[in-house]
Amino acid sequence: MATAAPAYVAHPPLEGAARLWGTVALSAATFMNVLDSSIANVSLPAISGDLGVSTTQGTWVITSFAVANAIAVPLTGFMTQRFGQVRLFMASVILFMITSLMCGLAPNMTTLIAFRALQGFVAGPMIPLSQTLLLSSYPRAKAGLAMAMWSMTTLVAPVMGPLLGGWITDNISWPWIFYINIPVGIVAAAITWALYRHRESATHKVPIDAIGLALLVLWVGSLQLMLDKGKELDWFHSAQIITLAVVAVVGFAFFLVWELTDKHPVVDLSLFKRRNFWSGAVATAVAYGLFFGNVVLLPLWLQQWMGYTATQAGMIMAPVGLLAIFFSPVVGLTVAKIDPRRYATFSFLVFALVLWMRSHFNTQADFVTIIIPTIIQGIAMAFFFIPLVTITLSGLTPDRIPAASGLSNFLRITAGAMGTSITTTLWENRAALHHSQLAETVNQGNNAATSAMSGLAGSGFSSEQVLGQLNRIVDQQSFMLATNDIFYASAILFLLLIPLVWLARPQRGGAGSDAAAGAH
What we know:
This protein is mainly α and 520 residues long. It has four domains: 18-206, MFS general substrate transporter like domains (Growth Hormone, Chain: A), CATH 1.20.1250; 209-265; 270-442 and 482-520, MFS general substrate transporter like domains (Growth Hormone, Chain: A, Up-down Bundle); 443-481. The chain has helices spanning 16-38, 44-51, 55-58, 60-72, 76-83, 85-105, 109-123, 126-137, 143-171, 176-179, 181-196, 210-229, 239-261, 275-305, 310-317, 320-334, 340-358, 367-382, 385-393, 401-441, 447-458, 463-501, 511-517. The two termini are 17 Å apart.
């Protein structure tokens, strides 16, 4: 801590119905927040068409939220010291409802993007503080269960987002993807205020680190814009992308030097001195980046090359929550007794298995073949968040948990954005390579190619149409092979992450409870 903080006052855990309602309220707020990061994805064509802009411009609806959110999340620790956990959480929920209403009422794309950025920024403290408040509501022995309840909402919301967003857009109208936050927010805010207003954390005046904040906005904003615009502008063949990359790298270097030497840093980088924190946070971030990249890739491939509709692709993705909901409480209740590194290792092994199964898909794969790995993936997700959060927060005093949670969530969100950009770029590059290799084999000496061409010609196709049909088949196979490449490489990377988890040293006497409660 930069200044002498007042003594930390530990509030007794909530009991009975109060604890249940507290869990519901905090989980509802988290659900609303995570849902909003994915619900607009499938509604983009409708929003863009309605507001008279291209779909490419429409992607700024997602980008603006992500950039502002990524900047606000690591500020949680600093703002908690100034305003207190409960007040900051309440402000975040109420402002989120107001900005949601403004998004729904936006008359044009410029206004919508501005309101989405504002919505992303005010949403920043909500996830880390819901985690912190939930942990304070449970006794140390049940901290794992608290994390299970919390992680279920973060697992289900990204899957629900596209399904709900698609249904609302098709059956009502796109502004309602924002309006639905208002009743959820009112319930979450009312219950939270009733239960937690007398459980405020100690506050003290910390000077605002304006330079640190400006550098954070500069490098995170540049990095996020570079990732979002990279594919569209052909990456480093574009002067704009090179400029953004240079600004991000230089800004990050200055930010590091400033934050490590400033008396009152806006982001507490001293957390990285703790082996448990950096090994847990980095493992979570990289694994989440891999997971998120593949979550984006699968529906893209299904819709573009397998003839699936958005709803059918959503149905393929939806069952991922089934086993996650079933196993999460089991993990939560046992994480205090079993080494969380073992659970995290198991999670990464199952992720690797799922991706290896997907790397054997072909263009004849039916619905059942494609959905089986998705169902199995639910097991990996249940064993993913809780043990890794346990490792990351272990050994921290309760007053440092908001800062640690904010910083680890920031790394996770940024890794998710990077995972999406890297995956889609590699996918298209690999497809182009496979296309050129496959096209070379289509010649007079290839019996399969000549019989296919003569068959198409016999069906009354002109020579241009025959070549067009062949090109479409080659394209489909190229993207199929590229998809297999990405899945296979991701499986290998999950296996390579396992040693990182084992660098952490779990706490004696119940890693789960110590980690979550932040006791030494």
